[in-house]
Specification:
The complex is a heterodimer of chains A (about 140) and B (about 130). Chain A has about 140 residues and is mainly α. Chain A is built from six helices and no strands. In chain B, helix 1 runs antiparallel to helix 3 and helix 1 packs parallel to helix 5. Classes of the chains: A mainly alpha (about 140), B mainly alpha (about 130).
Chain lengths: ~140, ~130
């Protein structure tokens, strides 16, 4: 089956895919925030909400980014296992909070930061184990 | 406030499940092609072209559209950090689904890492 070793090239592709994915999330949040004039109380307001969202240039920028991520991600998955690629994509957990602070002016508490570090530790652990098992498997 | 937060978490779990289905269908499609790492741009385009001809990929695509719709709604209500952190639930779903459906090996160390991720999710949800 596919090789399990993670090369520098794949790592760089993963980082690129993560940066683009972060950019995607940022765009979608921007599009959603701009459409928030609708209070979204009932089901009847769902349609105008999505009309507002889809008229935002941020959404289309985000969708273009999704397409690019799909091509890069498929290329990565042609080489390594899904359970290897997904944990290594943990870079987002550093990028997303940083972007949220810088551009969306959201606040992150110490507790939330520690949670993010926990998630990151777990993700490193998972990738590490996968790598060892992958080598043993070979 | 509380039930609203629970509803948002439920929606995020739903998007995680949809994303997992998308990933499993994508990976199994790629496994069917069997090409290992297309290097040149022409190879990549040929690879993507062969990939999009596989029907199950489009089923996966439908799930990702569904996920996107729910996700857009979630993001209009919740902080990006909160939403994205709870969304990390998909690490567990991916590990389980890769193990069950793709026959990938999931050892004790990986489950420990998964437990750490769950702990992180709980911490983030408390904040």
């Amino acid at each position: 089956m596919t090789a399990k070793r993670v090369t520098v090239k794949i790592l760089l592709l993963l980082v690129l895919s993560d940066v683009l994915e972060t950019f995607t999330h940022f765009c979608f949040k921007k599009a959603a925030v701009l459409a928030q004039d609708f209070s979204l109380q009932g089901l009847a307001e769902v349609a105008p909400f999505f009309r507002g969202v889809f008229s935002s240039p941020f959404l289309w920028l985000g969708l273009f980014s999704v397409l690019t991520v799909f091509i890069i991600w498929s290329t990565i998955l042609s080489r390594i296992d899904l359970s290897v690629a997904v944990p290594i994509a943990s870079f987002s957990y550093i990028l997303v909070p940083v972007v949220s602070i810088a551009f969306l002016h959201e606040r992150i508490s110490l507790l939330r930061w520690s949670g993010i570090i926990f998630i990151l530790l777990g993700v490193i652990f998972v990738s590490w184990s996968t790598k060892e098992e992958g080598q043993a498997h070979l | 406030m509380k039930p609203q937060v629970l509803f948002i978490i439920f929606l995020i779990v739903l998007t995680s499940l949809c994303d997992t289905i998308t990933q499993i269908l994508l990976k199994s499609s790629i496994n069917r092609i069997g090409v290992s790492f297309p290097g040149k741009l022409r190879e990549i385009l040929r690879f993507i072209f062969r990939l999009i001809l596989i029907p199950r990929l489009w089923i996966g695509f439908l799930f990702s559209v569904l996920s996107l719709c729910i996700w857009l709604f979630v993001l209009s209500r919740a902080d990006l950090n909160f939403a994205f952190s709870v969304d990390s639930m998909h690490y567990i779903f991916i590990a389980l689904a890769s193990w069950i459906f793709l026959k990938e090996r999931v050892g004790a160390r990986r489950w420990l890492g998964t437990a750490l991720i769950v702990a992180g999710i709980v911490l983030v949800s408390l904040s």
